[in-house]
Amino acid sequence: MSSVTAIDCPGLPLFREGKVRSIFDFGDNLLMVTSDRVSAFDQVLPQGIPGKGALLTDLSKFWFDYLDVPNHLISTDVADFPEATRPYHTMLAGRSMWVKKTQRIDIECIVRGYLAGSGWADYQKTGGIKGHQLPDGLQLGSQLPTPIFTPSTKVDDGHDETISMDTMADMVGQDLTNTLMDLSLRLYQTAHDYAAKQGIVIADTKFEFGFLNDQIIIIDEVLTPDSSRFWPADYTLGQSPPSYDKQIIRDYLISQNAQDQVPPPELPAHIIEQTVQQYKAIAKILKQGVHTH
């Protein structure tokens, strides 16, 4: 199975090209196309992950349907897309969302419920995460006393930077900061509780929001293996948990001391295949329990 890393649609009005998504502008609506590109440590890797774009789109649709919050999704059916997209339907099918255009809020709303990744590194140095003080004696994988909100900037090129709540308030206002924090924590808890019934831990995730007619709605992707860490509930505390996400790729790059290598190295076939299998597995596990809602 080959991967789709280039979204080439001559004649369609390109709005923005991200690390993974290509977005086309149709006035009040956008066509958001998810490629099979994969990024790690803020770099797009040379190869894609076959089928990834379709899996991320399908899982985002699942969560948009499940979560009780306004969102930007109109349709994932190419039959509902504008006539101009018809020549590209074969490529677009399964990996595209027809969405409402919003005024994007340039903040990544990150929620952490467990010690992992940069949060674990921060805790080892400071005893907390991004200014949130935590109890002594926590281990890699420990559940935090309560989930915490650690926002970052949202930039299309380069590195997103973690910011304090005060900096976020300076950027978007205190009221919006509080609203986005409360909403992000609520969405995380809802998803966390659902996933727990399927034997899955959502260790952390990020949300993005925009304004539409003065209403805050959730946009972009939601609770996918690209934006979240998913662990089996029976993971071992103190060890790096096996992840249903791109942690396989991060771990490989770290093992090669290549997390800062420019350009990043080629991935071995077995790493790509393991990642494909993990993405497929988490989509199946999460969707199997939808009847419990």
Provide an overview of this structure.
This protein is of the alpha+beta class. It contains 7 helices and 16 strands. It has helices spanning 52-66, 89-92, 117-126, 165-172, 174-197, 247-255, 269-287; strands at 14-17, 21-26, 29-34, 39-40, 43-44, 73-75, 96-100, 103-104, 107-114, 128-129, 132-133, 143-149, 152-153, 200-212, 215-219, 228-232. Strands 8, 9, 12, 13, 14, 15 and 16 form a 7-stranded antiparallel beta sheet that branches. Helix 1 (52-66) runs parallel beside helix 7 (269-287). The longest helix has 24 residues, at 174-197. The chain is globular.
- Low-confidence regions: none
Q: Report the span from N to C terminus.
A: 34 Å
Outline type: globular
CATH homologous superfamily label of the largest domain: ATP-grasp fold, B domain
Radius of gyration: 19 Å
CATH class of the largest domain: Alpha Beta
Given helix and strand content, the structural type is: alpha+beta
| Count of helical regions | 7
Total number of distinct structural domains: 2
As a percent range, the share of strand residues is 25-35%
Mean pLDDT: 94
Report the order of strands and helices: EEEEEHEHEEEHEEEEHHEEEHH
